[in-house]
């Protein structure tokens, strides 16, 4: 009888442990923190930001960080991107480019509009990760093509910024700023390359 009671007690303990709440997963987004743009009419010329290419090590939900200066990576189990990282980079780039390109007489096509554009911007991300209490790094190759697929310009944007803390809030905010800086760099280049008014 004691063995049976002990077995039932152990079985209930295992069941209760299995039903216990697990650690909640946190989700993060890249953001530009820009005020929305509104206009009554859009220019006829357009720019489309193509689907962004990211390396395989970033094609996952968990946020990737590095161990010091080594090649060792940590993939967070309970700290995930709220959308695929490539989508977040594309979205932030569009947000940042919209106002300066409108001023140059070019409409940046919105999400979901994959129609033929006068210009297409391709972004090939080589690296976007960071170390807690050290730095985050962004390395992007970009190409601008016209509607005939001719290359108008190519460039490389590489930057880093200190990560002042050990939380994923701090790391993702730093990575957001790097993506925004990359898009701002392009906003300064693209109007001239597309023959805009700027």
Automatic annotation (TrEMBL):
A Pfam family annotated for this UniProt entry: ABC_trans_aux
Record carries keyword Signal: yes
UniProt keyword annotations, A-Z: Signal
Matches recorded under Gene3D superfamilies: ABC-type transport auxiliary lipoprotein component
Span of the signal peptide: 1-20
InterPro entries membership: ABC_trans_aux
Coiled coil: none
Domain of life, per lineage: Bacteria
Ranges where the ABC-type transport auxiliary lipoprotein component domain occurs: 28-187
Protein name per Swiss-Prot or TrEMBL: ABC-type transport auxiliary lipoprotein component domain-containing protein
Gene source species: uncultured Desulfovibrio sp
